[in-house]
Design goal:
Layout lengths: L4 E3 L15 E3 L15 H5 L3 E5 L15 E7 L6 E15 L5 E8 L14 E4 L10 E7 L11 E2 L19 E4 L5 E3 L3 E8 L4 E14 L5
Parallel strand pairs: 1-2
Antiparallel strand pairs: 3-7, 3-13, 4-8, 4-12, 5-10, 5-11, 5-13, 6-9, 6-12
Length: 222
């Protein structure tokens, strides 16, 4: 039995010769479905993975689910690529938090009812392979989320969080983090907005800064 496979760089347009049942191999001589590389190596190597820090000034948590107010977020200004969110971290900048906290997210489009988000002071976006590609994503703070498909912004719990209630104060010192291991379960399509906020007790004037990790790809969104 003879098998045929194609080795090519990622990402690249498929040639007519690939419109068969040929398998795809990687540069490390492994099938795409059988990893030899570390989990995130290939998309990072291709220069498609980015990370952002929301600003250089922290924002206080909220004590109720917001309506339209997003403390932080990402605006996908690219007309072709989607942002596939892998990880969201909120780290303590100052103050003392209470035990527990939940990272909330929502999606919207500035459309006809909102304004285009602008970059926050001190926000940074880094290519995680120090490659030549640049992201068009904008990290913003304090933005009123406009309606999406005629609905008020619908908030959800960012997936991949681990419960923190009853385990003391998990981030009582500066730099302590609350994490959401999203792993692709949130996608921000072209021109759409991802809003983020921290739902937690008031504590003693805690201030948080978010960090988001994602990769960018042209996706067939339905």
């Amino acid at each position: 039995m003879l098998g045929e496979a194609i080795i090519r760089r990622f990402p690249a347009a498929r040639a007519l010769s690939e419109l068969t049942t040929a398998g795809r191999l990687t540069g490390d001589i492994s099938l795409a479905a059988a990893q030899t590389e570390a989990e995130f190596t290939e998309v990072t190597r291709a220069g498609r993975r980015f990370s952002a820090i929301g600003s250089n000034a922290g924002v206080a948590p909220v004590q109720a689910v917001p309506t339209t107010a997003a403390a932080w977020g990402l605006y996908n200004a690219d007309l072709n690529k989607s942002l596939v969110i892998d990880y969201v971290t909120f780290f303590l900048l100052s103050g003392t938090p209470v035990s527990g906290g939940t990272i909330l997210g929502c999606q919207a489009s500035y459309g006809l009812t909102g304004t285009v988000p602008v970059a926050a002071g001190g926000s940074t976006i880094s290519n995680m392979s120090a490659g030549g590609q640049f992201s068009k994503t904008v990290a913003f703070v304090n933005y009123a989320m406009p309606a999406l498909l005629g609905q008020t912004a619908q908030w959800f719990v960012m997936p991949g969080q681990q419960g923190q209630m009853g385990v003391g104060t998990p981030a009582a010192s500066v730099g302590g983090t609350w994490n959401a291991d999203v792993r692709g379960r949130v996608i921000v399509p072209p021109t759409k907005i991802l809003g983020l906020t921290m739902l937690a007790g008031a504590g003693t004037s805690p201030l948080y800064i978010p960090s988001v990790e994602w990769y960018e790809a042209e996706l067939d969104l339905e």
